[in-house]
Design a protein that fits this description.
Number of strands: 5
Radius of gyration: 11 Å
Number of helices: 2
Shape: globular
Largest sheet: 5 strands, antiparallel
Helix content: 10-25%
Strand order of the largest sheet: 1-2-3-4-5
């Protein structure tokens, strides 16, 4: 897993996500005890976003419209 640290959020990139085996990029919202993780792209789109990242505002907009999210312990 690789990370990109922005001002308010982190971006994670998995070359092969364990649940579907394809690349996945997610926005991580740091929290105190738990972090909110929102997958925003899978497959070729995830790879493209990792290679040519959006601004923080762009990633926040993608996360706002995403359907899945997970809370994980920090």
């Amino acid at each position: 897993m690789r990370y990109l640290q922005l001002k308010q959020i982190r971006i994670s990139y998995l070359e092969k996500a364990p649940d579907h085996g394809r690349p996945e990029i997610a926005v991580i919202f740091p929290g105190r005890k738990r972090q909110r993780v929102v997958p925003v792209a899978v497959g070729e789109e995830a790879t493209r976003l990792w290679q040519q990242p959006l601004s923080e505002e762009g990633f926040l907009a993608l996360a706002e419209h995403a359907q899945d999210e997970t809370l994980v312990s920090a």
